[in-house]
Every structure is written in structure tokens, then in C-alpha cells.
Write a structure and sequence with these properties.
Blueprint lengths: L2 H15 L1 E6 L5 E8 L5 E4 L12 E2 L3 E6 L4 H9 L10 E6 L4 E6 L3 H19 L3 H4 L3 H11 L9 H10 L7 H11 L9 H11 L3 H10 L12 E3 H11 L3 E7 L5 E7 L3 H11 L3 H5 L2 E3 L2 E4 L7 H5 L3 E3 L2 E4 L1 H7 L8 H4 L13 E3 L19 H8 L4 E7 L7 E2 L9 E2 H8 L11 E7 L3 H15 L26 E5 L33 H4 L2 E6 L5 H7 L4 E6 H10 L1 H7 L5 E4 L12 H5 L5 E2 L10 H7 L8 E3 L2 H4 L1 H4 L14 E11 L14 E8 L6 E4 L11 E10 L6 E8 L7 E9 L6 E8 L5 E14 L11
């Protein structure tokens, strides 16, 4: 064990013993409690109070978003202002943010050492959870025994058949036929007492979760494979090499250092037996298999009164003294390099980042200050952190005069409670560049008086300092927008500067529908000089047709379009829209009638070249996964380069409504939906076992849109198998998003979406692939889909043109 590992172990052990922390409430009340980390390290809680109905809250590690030191929260700010705590005590304070930054608990430690123990320990556990996949958990005894403890209602430390059956339906979401259950139970019950000990339950769990779908695959690609059982089938080096080259077209990703000491990922084809052996050494947990150059499948071997080899113990794969799990092939296919996403595209900023900003799609949020609907609730600075940490690079602030002379952010003429403009800027600053080095755009809707506009300018400059872009870049060509590379670690303010353009002798006449989301009240007609000086590259101006814009606007001018107006323009004058996006930035936003914070489909805007399709990040609807999928590309940096035929639309005559153009590499995507693993229920309080089916949809140009779905598998969320094949002909492959949704069929109500994953077609790896599914709120899950992917070129002999 290294010194760092020993230090973390010591920290966690101290947290398990518990420490006294003071739980602070915004009303000034203080509640001393002994907080502790649970022995299994899956949640934090505190000892119950003496109240009759007092029940301690549980803070699950999987729900924690951030642990924050000091007074960096609105509650602590208010407590300092009210004098409830002393400003000198900041070194004792920390805040745990959870539930996607929607909830928080504010704590004071007795000294700095204890405060730091909690910060280090919780941060480690959150990071550890984020990197755990199904591959790690299925070999982790502690995780498996959590199910055992939940089912052991009488605390006998054994499970009866009845308790075991209830566990299968209540926790593992599967109804097993009686004969199959009896066979598995008998095989695991080594003591033959009719009860399962914890050790025997681990064996039962692994027997239950053996992958018969992978067994069928191994039989196809292993010599004499059909003569082997699921327990003894294996691949040798040559068989594995052939599988990786011919079936998977597998690439290995290697991290290298560039000449300027930056990390870079390169891809290497698998062509040599030595490379296959390296994979066996990495993923095969059985010493004998490794030494023979063999990769096993998914084997649970039982030992009676016999110690395991020290080699396996060192590998930390000893489940107990009686059994050993060996699952090399499954381990390999569940690893990140082998999932459906090309790792070099998802983990590395690989695109050219030196082109003008208008050549990129930009991850954009609408009314970022809201966590829920558009009419009520409160404006919350933490909503900005949620969006930024989800990859957003353009956020919105609707600014109004505050009663105390300081600007506020709220949704005008609604019941939304305001928050201060200053608190938003201050609390978002630490997270501005955590997910990406590329510029953050503040879209200001300015409803403020000149006096409070001046205060806005001061706040921006004081808090953001050198991060705030205050003047044009000296080396940039003023005819073009600067590039994301030019604007690294910079904050750009987007707003209306004046009614007058930079072109001489031209005045823009403002109309009611010209500017952002101002439904009931207009924006400020005058802009205070100091604030206006910060509006540089993205000066908001009314949208006009192409000829007018070309004669009166520069590349520094940007326009916003409401959903309904955009839809009309895309029907009536699509060429004007597309051509304007080749040299300046356009933004769309949801229509004013979407008071439930629902979203318009951003793909409709993206196929016309619109760079900023603003979405309500607070909504967990069926649209947000399209955004998460789109910006999974290019290392998740929030900027994705548009296809060349959109960048050069003046030369290509691109029009998404013209199916006869042949500007992209047309593809035939063939997907086989094989199986799923560990599907959760849609909500914790739903007791029905899922009846899952998979919906696959392609989103892109109108000619490419298509939806398919599998049959329903009844009463099986643990390991349903479909083996259904679907084909999609895709003309514009660079615009296409492939969206996988897993639903729970219900004969009487709407089907619930259990999990999803979305990604660009260009990021898909071919062959047999696991899809690591996301929850509806975009959190990671331990659920997976297993699919086969085939992508072939498709040529229509009747259509010829230049591809870009």
C-alpha cells in the first residue's frame, strides 16, 4: 500500500468513528450532531437526536455533487451578514452539495484538522464512485453483500429461500422461474442447510449474473467453442487477436506526452499477439489462465477448505476462502476502451480549435438561474454550477434592479424569487473552467437602470478579474470572430450594446420581437458606458435577412431567435439562416409558452448551423439527452466543430431540406440489441419489476430521422435478452445522433424511461459493445445495454456530388 493509499484509509477510518459537527440552518439555529461515515462507505449520516420523531438524514455518496470549503454558499453568506457566525471562522466551514446541486448541508467543524478530514474523505469517495463501473462492482464483495444485508430482515446472517426470492424481485428486479431458482440455490448452498451464508450468497449472485449472451459469442469465435461449457470456455492469444481485429476492429488508446508536456491520446491498431497477451494480463484474473495465454469468460469456482493462491489475493479478487470469480472476457468488454464510445473522441480535445467561434456548436443554457419551472421557485446560483459541471459553456442571466441598489437575477413578471447578481458570479467562478478550458459566455438580459448597470460592470471586473474579456484581442483579425483557442480561460459577455451598428450611417430600428426572452417587459434602451465596454465580440442585434445583415452587421454581431420565429424562418428562408451562421453567431431559445421548462428539439437548430441552441438544463425531459450526446464529442469541452459543408455553405449550397444533395459520407448503421444488465426501476417507490424494451432513434437531417423499438421482456430488469436487429440509412452522418432509451412497459399508464444514452454516429465503435446508461438526470448508473454495431458506407448511384 502506497503512502497516499494509507493516508486515505486512515482518513476514512477516522470518519467512520465519527466527529461532532455543527449543522447550520439559515435561520441561525445550530444543531451539534455526531456525523459519521457508514462502515460500508456508501453514505454519511449522524446520530439521531432525542426528539420523539427525530430521524437522521442519510447523504448517499452517489448523490453528492461537490464538497466545498469555506463560506461559499448563500446560507453561510446570510449567517455572516446576520452575525450568527463570525467571519473569522471560515476555516472551520464546509458545504456538501447533493441532488444535482439542488440541496446542500452546511457544517462547522471544531477545528481545521477535522474540517479537512471531511473534505478530503468525501472528495475521495465521490471521485471513487464516479469511476466505478459495473465491471468493478460485480467483483466487489462489499457491494454484493449490500443486497444480502437488505434482504436479511431477521438479522440471522443467512438468507432463506423466501428471503432470497424477495431479494430477486425487490432489489435485483427479476422474476426467476421456480426450476431455475432451485437449481441456482442448490448449487450455491454448499452447506446443504437450505440457507445461504454471506459467502454462499456471493456465489449465488455470480451464478445468477453469468453472461449467457457472452458465452454464445465466445462459442462462435473459439475453436471447438460449442464443446465447452460456460465454466471452462476460453480464448487463446490467436483467437483473441482474430476477434479483436476482424470482429471488433479494436484500437488501443495510449496516453503520450507532447513536446510541450501536454497529455495526448493516440490510437494504435491491434495487430500483434503481444498486444492480445497484454489484454489477457490486464483483464484475466486467474493466474493459470494468464500463464497459458488464455482469456476466460465468467466463471465462479468454489473451493472447500482450500486457500487461494497468493497471486489472486494480491489481485484483490479473493471473495472469501471458498470461492473465486474469474471473468476475463466480460471484464474486457465492460472496460472503457471497449464500450460503444470511441475513447479518443470522448476523452481528448481532438478537433481544430483555432477556427472562428461561429464555426462551432456551443453548449448553451436557457434561463440558467432556474432549477424547476418558469413561473415559481427561486433563482439559485447553484443552478449555474450544475450547468457548468454538465459541460455548458454559455449561461443566461436576466438582470433587474434590486431594491437595495444592487442588481438581481430573476424571471420578470413571475413568482420566481430573485437572487443577487453578485452571488451568481461569485459562486460560479470556481467552476467556470473545471470541465473545459474554452470560453464561457454570459448572456445578459439587461433590464437594469444605468446606476445598477454600473454596479454590474464593477461586480464582473472585481470578481472575474483577468478572466473577463475587456477589450478586443490585439492579434486577431477584426473581420472574423476569434477562436476558442484565442479565448481560452476567458469569460465573454453577450448583450445588446447600443441601437447603433458599427457600420457607418446605419441605425437599427428595434422591434418588440427583436431581443431575447423579453415577453412582458423590454430590455433597457440605454446601456451604461462601463458595462457596455464589456460587450465586445457578441453584441446582440435584431435578426434580419441575409442581405441586410451582410450590409449592416459585422462578425461581432449576434442575434437571438425565439423558437416559433426560428421555425418560421427555417421554413420560409432557410438559406438566409444557414448563410448567416457561416460568419456570425445565432442563438435560439425555447418559446414563451414553455412555462414547464420543456425544451424544443435542438437538432432542428443545429442542422441549420445555429451555434447556440439554448436549452432548459433544469428539465429532465427527453430532449436534454440530445444535448448531452452532441457535446460528448471533442473531449466534452462544450465546443464541437461544425461539418465543413455547413462552414462553407456559400460554396456547397447545403440545405437540410434537400435530400438529393450528397455532401456527407452516407452510412448504413446496423444495430443488434442483444441484452441489458442491472436495470433499475424508474422510481424507488415503484414495486413492479420492470418489463423493459429498448427504443432506438436517429436524430439529424429530416431524411435521416427514424425510430425503432424492441419487443417487451416481462419481469426482468436484471438480464433481459432481445437479440433484435435494426438498420438505419443515414445520409448526413456528421449530423446524426443515435439515441438509446430503455423503457418500462405499462399497459395502463405511460411507459417510464429507465435510462438512456445518446452519442454522435461518428463516435460509435463497431463490434460488440456495452453502452453505459445514464439516469434521466444524466447521472451515471451501473446499468448497461449490450449491442452489436456495424457501420458500412452507403452510395446512392443516382446522386453524385462533392463530399466534405
Amino acid at each position: 500500500m502506497s503512502n497516499d493509499e494509507k493516508h486515505i484509509t486512515d482518513v476514512l477510518n477516522q470518519l467512520k468513528l465519527g466527529t461532532i459537527l455543527i449543522k447550520q440552518k439559515i435561520n441561525g439555529k445550530k444543531y451539534p450532531r455526531r456525523f459519521f461515515l457508514h462502515e460500508h462507505e456508501d453514505f454519511i449520516s449522524y446520530e439521531a437526536s432525542r426528539k420523539t420523531f427525530g430521524k437522521p438524514r442519510i447523504y448517499r455518496i452517489k448523490d453528492i455533487d461537490e464538497v466545498r470549503s469555506g463560506f461559499r454558499s448563500r446560507t453561510f453568506d446570510q449567517l455572516v451578514i446576520n452575525g450568527s457566525i463570525n467571519a473569522s471562522e471560515e476555516d472551520l466551514a464546509f458545504t456538501i452539495m447533493y441532488n444535482n446541486h439542488r440541496n446542500e448541508v452546511h457544517l462547522m467543524a471544531p477545528d481545521v484538522t477535522i474540517r479537512n478530514l471531511w473534505i478530503v474523505g468525501v472528495h475521495h469517495l465521490v471521485d471513487k464512485h464516479a469511476h466505478k463501473s459495473q465491471r468493478h462492482l460485480t467483483t466487489e464483495e462489499k457491494w454484493i453483500l449490500n443486497y444480502f444485508r437488505e434482504a436479511d430482515k431477521d438479522r440471522s446472517n443467512t438468507l432463506s429461500k423466501r428471503e432470497c426470492r424477495k431479494l430477486l424481485t425487490d432489489s435485483l428486479n427479476v422474476k426467476v422461474p421456480d426450476a431455475v431458482f432451485e437449481q441456482l440455490f442448490r448449487k450455491a448452498d454448499k452447506s446443504q442447510e437450505g440457507l445461504l451464508s454471506p459467502e454462499e450468497f456471493v456465489g449465488f449472485f455470480h451464478l445468477l449474473t453469468q453472461r449467457k449472451d457472452l458465452y454464445e459469442i465466445m462459442k462462435q469465435y473459439t475453436k471447438n467453442g460449442r464443446s465447452y461449457s460456460i465454466e471452462n470456455i476460453h480464448m487463446n492469444v490467436d483467437e483473441l487477436l482474430s476477434f479483436l481485429r476482424i470482429v471488433q476492429n479494436q484500437k488501443l488508446t495510449i496516453n503520450v506526452k507532447t513536446h510541450d508536456d501536454r497529455d495526448r491520446i493516440i490510437c494504435e491498431s491491434i495487430e500483434k499477439p503481444e498486444q492480445a497477451q497484454e489484454l489477457i494480463d490486464k483483464f484475466e484474473l486467474g493466474k493459470e489462465f494468464r500463464q497459458k495465454g488464455q482469456l476466460s469468460l465468467d466463471v465462479c469456482i468454489f473451493f472447500i477448505n482450500r486457500e487461494l493462491t497468493s497471486d489472486i489475493q494480491l489481485c484483490n479478487e479473493r471473495l472469501n476462502n471458498n470461492q473465486l470469480l474469474i471473468l476475463g472476457f466480460r471484464n474486457m468488454l465492460l472496460s472503457s476502451n471497449f464500450d460503444i464510445v470511441k475513447p479518443s473522441y470522448a476523452r481528448h480535445i481532438y478537433q481544430n480549435m483555432t477556427r472562428p467561434l461561429c464555426d462551432y456548436y456551443i453548449n448553451t443554457s436557457h434561463n440558467t438561474y432556474l432549477f424547476y419551472g418558469q413561473l415559481s421557485g427561486e433563482s439559485n446560483p447553484e443552478a449555474y454550477n450544475q450547468a457548468l459541471l454538465a459541460g455548458c459553456r454559455a449561461v443566461e442571466l436576466d438582470c433587474y434592479d434590486g431594491s437595495d441598489g444592487k442588481p438581481i437575477v430573476t424571471h420578470g413578471y413571475t413568482f420566481v424569487k430573485p437572487c443577487s447578481f453578485e452571488s451568481i458570479i461569485r459562486y460560479m467562478k470556481p467552476n467556470l473552467f473545471k470541465t473545459s478550458p474554452y470560453p464561457v459566455i454570459l448572456n445578459l438580459e439587461n433590464h437594469c437602470s444605468l446606476e445598477q448597470q454600473k454596479e454590474m460592470g464593477r461586480i464582473l471586473e472585481d470578481i472575474l478579474g483577468d478572466q473577463l474579456l475587456k477589450e478586443p484581442l490585439t492579434h486577431a483579425n477584426p473581420r472574423y470572430l476569434p477562436s476558442p483557442e484565442d479565448l481560452k480561460y476567458k469569460v465573454i459577455v453577450r448583450s445588446r450594446k447600443t441601437a447603433k451598428t458599427t457600420k457607418p450611417n446605419t441605425i437599427i430600428k428595434l422591434k418588440d420581437d427583436d431581443d431575447d426572452d423579453s415577453i412582458f417587459d423590454s430590455l433597457s434602451k440605454k446601456v451604461q458606458h462601463n458595462l457596455g465596454e464589456l460587450f465586445i465580440y457578441l453584441q446582440n442585434v435584431p435578426y434580419r435577412d441575409y442581405d441586410y445583415a451582410k450590409n449592416n452587421y459585422s462578425s461581432w454581431h449576434s442575434s437571438s431567435l425565439a423558437e416559433t420565429r426560428f421555425e418560421k424562418l427555417s421554413r420560409d428562408d432557410p438559406t438566409s439562416l444557414i448563410l448567416q451562421t457561416t460568419w456570425r453567431i445565432l442563438r435560439t431559445y425555447p418559446g414563451g409558452l414553455r412555462q414547464d421548462s420543456s425544451n424544443a428539439n435542438p437538432v432542428t437548430a443545429w442542422i441549420y448551423g445555429i451555434q447556440m441552441a439554448a436549452l432548459n438544463f433544469q428539465n429532465e425531459d427527453d430532449i436534454m439527452p440530445l444535448c448531452y450526446g452532441k457535446f460528448l464529442d471533442n473531449g466534452g469541452c462544450g465546443y464541437v466543430l461544425k461539418p465543413k459543408y455547413l462552414i462553407n455553405a456559400l460554396e456547397t449550397d447545403y440545405n437540410p431540406l434537400n435530400p438529393k444533395l450528397n455532401l456527407d459520407w452516407a452510412k448504413v448503421l446496423t444495430l443488434t440489441i442483444i441484452s441489458a444488465q442491472f436495470l433499475s426501476r424508474s422510481m424507488a417507490d415503484i414495486f413492479d419489476i420492470p418489463d423493459p424494451y429498448v427504443m432506438i432513434s436517429v436524430h439529424g437531417a429530416p431524411c435521416d430521422q427514424k425510430i425503432e423499438k424492441t419487443k417487451v421482456i416481462e419481469n426482468n430488469g436484471l438480464n433481459p435478452i432481445w437479440n433484435e436487429k435494426f438498420s438505419f440509412h443515414i445520409k448526413y452522418s456528421q449530423l446524426a445522433l443515435v439515441y438509446f432509451s430503455v423503457y418500462d412497459h405499462d399497459s395502463f399508464t405511460l411507459d417510464d424511461k429507465l435510462a438512456y444514452f445518446c452519442l454522435p454516429l461518428t463516435m460509435m465503435q463497431t463490434g460488440y459493445r456495452h453502452i453505459h446508461l445514464r439516469a434521466n438526470n444524466n447521472d451515471l448508473t451501473h446499468s448497461t445495454l449490450f449491442v452489436h454495431v456495424d457501420i458500412q458506407d452507403y452510395d446512392d448511384d443516382n446522386i453524385t456530388s462533392t463530399r466534405f
